[in-house]
TrEMBL record:
<keyword id="KW-0813">Transport</keyword>
<feature type="transmembrane region" description="Helical">
    <location>
        <begin position="29"/>
        <end position="47"/>
    </location>
</feature>
<feature type="transmembrane region" description="Helical">
    <location>
        <begin position="59"/>
        <end position="78"/>
    </location>
</feature>
<dbReference type="InterPro" id="IPR037185">
    <property type="entry name" value="EmrE-like"/>
</dbReference>
<feature type="transmembrane region" description="Helical">
    <location>
        <begin position="84"/>
        <end position="104"/>
    </location>
</feature>
<keyword id="KW-0812">Transmembrane</keyword>
<dbReference type="InterPro" id="IPR000390">
    <property type="entry name" value="Small_drug/metabolite_transptr"/>
</dbReference>
<keyword id="KW-0472">Membrane</keyword>
<keyword id="KW-1133">Transmembrane helix</keyword>
<comment type="similarity">
    <text>Belongs to the drug/metabolite transporter (DMT) superfamily. Small multidrug resistance (SMR) (TC 2.A.7.1) family.</text>
</comment>
<dbReference type="Pfam" id="PF00893">
    <property type="entry name" value="Multi_Drug_Res"/>
</dbReference>
<protein>
    <submittedName>
        <fullName>SugE protein</fullName>
    </submittedName>
</protein>
<dbReference type="GO" id="GO:0005886">
    <property type="term" value="C:plasma membrane"/>
</dbReference>
<keyword id="KW-1003">Cell membrane</keyword>
<dbReference type="InterPro" id="IPR045324">
    <property type="entry name" value="Small_multidrug_res"/>
</dbReference>
<dbReference type="GO" id="GO:0022857">
    <property type="term" value="F:transmembrane transporter activity"/>
</dbReference>
Amino acid sequence: MSWFYLLLAGLSEILWSTTMKLSQGFTKIGWAVITIIGLIGSMFFLLKAVKQLPFSLAYPIWTGIGAVGAVIVGVLLFHDKFPVSTWFFIVLLIIAIIGIKVTAGE
């Protein structure tokens, strides 16, 4: 269940970072409220996850999910563009997240 909580924490991280941009500096109240809810959800689920998982394992996976998710949202929703070299490192980040999970022995 702790891995599920960690996944929810990462997804909440993607939610709040996306809605923070959509809030336009917290001038759009609806998006600002969702940002705060996402922040609270991200912290809540991370706290639930680290009750069972080592923090040194959970934290990099949580931030990795958020980072990769932010890139995907940026490309799909905000039409961000990256050179091929940047995509290489994004793929390395995904491989690192999977590698940490697979080798953790949890």
